[in-house]
Amino acid sequence: MLLLLNFFRCPTRVIDEYHANTVVAPADGTIVVIEEVMENDFFHEKRLQVSIFMTIFNAHINWVPCDGKVTHFSYQKGRFLAAYLPKSSTENERTSIIIERKNGDQILVRQIAGAMAKRIVTYLKEGQECSINQQLGFIKFGSRVDLYLPLHTKIDVNLGDSVRGNKTLIAQFMDQIS
């Protein structure tokens, strides 16, 4: 019972100071992927993929990673492979959310169900303005969140790092770094 209560907790987290170039962790968990990949579902170009694996011990609430506008939302049925596996990004049940920044850069946030996860909840809607400190959704039980960032993004985490949703700086868009 305590494990279940721990899992469904929804901590209130607010970043008081951040910049327009900031990308924060959309979830609690461990960084399991940082690599350049060909993203073929939406962008059809190379992107930097950063993936966060959530165990049953992490809070599974998800946060908006950067300020912008939701330009796309879709849901894809799929398998329920272990979320730490690389092919879970393309084969598992998932939602895909594209957020467009004011400068036109777009990032893809993908909520991925894991072996035990059977439900993904997304609060954002297409056309909606969104910002850091706003909740994006919730994934029930073990799962993963992938970010697909432009190649000109500076990654500020390493493989194996533990991150906290809406607290840990994941990356910075290079267009705003001084």
CATH fold type:
Glucose Permease (Domain IIA)
| Shape type | globular
Total DSSP E strands: 14
Q: How is the biggest beta sheet arranged?
A: 8 strands, antiparallel
User: Percentage of helical residues?
Assistant: under 10%
Total discrete domains:
1
Roughly what fraction of the amino acids lie in strands? Answer: 35-45%
Give a brief rundown of this model.
With 178 residues, the chain is mainly β. The chain has helices at residues 2-7, 88-91; strands spanning 22-24, 29-39, 45-54, 61-63, 68-76, 94-100, 106-113, 120-122, 129-130, 135-139, 143-149, 153-155, 162-163, 169-173. It has a single domain, classed as Glucose Permease (Domain IIA) (Distorted Sandwich).
Detailed description of the structure:
With 178 residues, the chain is mostly beta strands. It has a single domain (2-176), classed as Distorted Sandwich (Glucose Permease (Domain IIA)), CATH 2.70.70.10. Helix content is 6%, strand content 44%. The chain has two helices and 14 strands, in the order H-E-E-E-E-E-H-E-E-E-E-E-E-E-E-E. It has helices spanning 2-7, 88-91, and strands at residues 22-24, 29-39, 45-54, 61-63, 68-76, 94-100, 106-113, 120-122, 129-130, 135-139, 143-149, 153-155, 162-163, 169-173. The strands form three sheets. An eight-stranded antiparallel beta sheet has the order 9-5-6-7-11-3-2-13. The protein has a three-stranded antiparallel beta sheet with strand order 1-14-12, with no helix packed on it. Strands 4-10-8 form a three-stranded antiparallel beta sheet, with no helix packed on it. The N and C termini lie far apart (49 Å).
